[in-house]
């Protein structure tokens, strides 16, 4: 195993340790070609998600309504509208909430 000297987190692969260690430094080797040097990332996975802003790629599809999303977390959030876990909704804009206090705040 490989250990991070900054925080002690352990990794089975050296490449995973190297990617993790960029969190502790200012190294951001993944530059967005669409944004230029203004936008760079320490993790390739974060760069990939960001790059979908420019490419329009939306690979995560809802099995219920077939709406597509740039990343899995957006799909999971959306799925709650189908699962009934967010039963309260705004009649003006359609946003859904898990409880009445969130709806009232909105």
UniProtKB/TrEMBL annotation:
Gene3D superfamilies: Classic Zinc Finger. It comes from the Eukaryota. Residues 2-29, 30-59, 60-87, 88-106 form the C2H2-type domain. Keywords: DNA-binding, Metal-binding, Nucleus, Repeat, Transcription, Transcription regulation, Zinc, Zinc-finger. The keyword Kinase does not apply. It holds the Pfam family zf-C2H2. PANTHER family: ZINC FINGER AND SCAN DOMAIN-CONTAINING (PTHR23226), ZINC FINGER AND SCAN DOMAIN-CONTAINING PROTEIN 20 (PTHR23226:SF377). This is ZSCA2 protein. It comes from Pandion haliaetus.
